[in-house]
Specification:
The chain is mainly alpha-helical. About 75% of the residues lie in helices and about 0% in strands.
Length: about 230
């Protein structure tokens, strides 16, 4: 588990890499664009509904309601959307880490075809939504503690993120044995928890997925290098 902090520090140290910065820019723009488009669609839908029922309590009510719902959705779904978007650029992050820190492994890596990247992104999206929905009853039971629901969702997303962020590198080297990841469950959980926490911090949350992808790459690649699995 001690490998998690060094992996995060190495990933942080590479944030200035042009290839990593390019992924940050693309993923942030696309993630925000998803919410902007969704907000615009919601506005049109609410405006149509308002006109149909003839409801107009205050001037600009539709704009206010749209803004509130969009902000709430962004707060609740940011992790899910950001990770789905990152899947399309995951190869670029992993490749940047390989070239800089693991050049011998870079030569043996297999780039994932777009069709598989889309399938992985959709699978991760469904898994994230499903696990979080299953966690709702547990969170409701612990609501009386005040902090219980937050801890429940943090734990669930730590598990999900730990898996997704290490799979990004492992899938380039696994040669079909996807379930045999060399990174232990404890390390995946700790790294997932760290990234899940960072994603809650304003501004930093925007770059946290890319930071996690780079850190997850280090956890996987150092194990492959040490065990001679490449």
């Amino acid at each position: 588990m001690s490998a998690v902090l060094p992996a995060l520090l190495k990933a942080l140290g590479q944030l200035g890499d042009r290839r990593i910065l390019a992924v940050v820019a693309k993923s942030v723009v696309l993630t925000l664009a998803v919410f902007v488009v969704a907000g615009a669609g919601l506005f049109l839908l609410l405006e149509e509904a308002r006109q149909w029922i003839g409801w107009a309590p205050i001037h600009g009510a539709t704009v206010i309601l749209t803004a509130l719902v969009t902000l709430l959705a962004a707060w609740l779904l940011f992790r899910v959307v950001a990770m789905a978007v990152l899947q399309f650029f995951a190869d670029e992050v992993v490749a940047a880490v390989e070239v800089r820190h693991y050049p011998a492994l870079a030569a043996s890596a297999q780039r994932l075809p777009l069709r598989r990247e889309i399938a992985i992104a959709l699978r991760g999206l469904v898994r994230a939504l499903g696990y979080n929905l299953l966690a709702v009853p547990v969170a409701a039971v612990t609501a009386f503690t005040g902090i219980g629901p937050a801890l429940v969702f943090l734990a669930v997303n730590a598990v999900l993120l730990g898996r997704e962020l290490t799979d990004m590198a492992w899938l380039r080297h696994c040669r079909g044995t996807e379930q045999a990841t060399p990174v232990g469950a404890g390390e995946r959980f700790l790294m997932g928890a760290a990234i899940a926490g960072l994603m809650l911090v304003p501004v930093i949350g925007l770059i946290a997925p890319v930071l996690g992808a780079a850190a997850g790459s280090h956890l996987v690649l150092r194990r492959i290098e040490a065990e001679g699995q490449a």
